[in-house]
Amino acid sequence: MTIVFTAKATRAASEAVKAARSSAIQSARSATAAADTVEIARKAYLAEHRPWLSVDAAINTDLTMTDGKLALGFMFAMRNYGRTPAQKVWIDSKLSIGSPTQHVAAEVEARRLAPRVGQAGIFKCVFPDQETHWGITHAHDDVSHPGPETADGRVLLLTLSGVLCYQEALDDGPVHYTSFVFEVRRSNSRVIATAPNGNWPTIPGAELSLVPWVSGWFAD
After folding, report:
1. d(CA 184, CA 209)
2. What does the pLDDT read at residue 176?
3. pLDDT at position 66, please?
4. Helices (H), strands (E): how many in the chain?
């Protein structure tokens, strides 16, 4: 009988240990779930109360190509859809020769990884529900071989890409990004111009348009 009672007591103790272990695991899971809930709530609060900048662009000059050099001006429109001001707003953009398929990944990532936030320069502040504009003229030093050779000469394809950088505070806080890639087109054609014998014409800005490939993409 002593052996039987001892076995029963041992079995009961083992079951008590299992129950305690199960309770500890459940408590740990509950604690983890509570921490996850707090983290989700924190991120939701920050997302709701941070600035969110969109970016759009338009062509505001003629496209000139003289002596193998190209120049074209753009006007960027930045709007804050968030609830707090966007500080140290800076646009870093580039005009590249070629189609967007050649530049979407490389250019957006390169621009995103090289922000101007925190560096010396002229920055803007965009308040909630406010839109501000920034004009930039890009130049390219070599359009002698811009595109494939056709029966009428070489063709010109252009891509505007870059990133909009900003912060929530003047001196600290995370850096946010909005990336963009536009294809420059002429009269609904991807070919902007054809140059027989390398003689490029001047093209009025009214004949050019921007087609977004990555527009208003909140990269962060």
Report:
1. 6
2. 86
3. 76
4. 2, 12
Inter-residue contact 185 to 208 (CB < 8 Å): yes
Report the C-alpha dihedral over residues 141, 57, 55, 99, rounded to 10 degrees: -50
Written as six digits, the tokens of 54 are 């969109």
**Residue 57: per-residue pLDDT:** 93
φ, ψ for residue 179 (rounded to 5)? -90, 160
Say how far apart CA 88 and CA 175 lie, in whole Å: 9
pTM here is: 0.70
Q: Rounded to whole angstroms, what are the CA distances from 99 to 153, 158, 159, 164, 190?
A: 18, 6, 6, 21, 8
pLDDT in tens, 14-65: 766 666 677 777 776 766 766 667 667 666 666 677 899 999 999 999 998 8
Rounded to an integer, what distance in angstroms lies between the CA atom of residue 33 and that of residue 130?
A: 39
Backbone dihedral angles phi then psi of residue 46, each to the nearest 5 degrees:
-65, -40
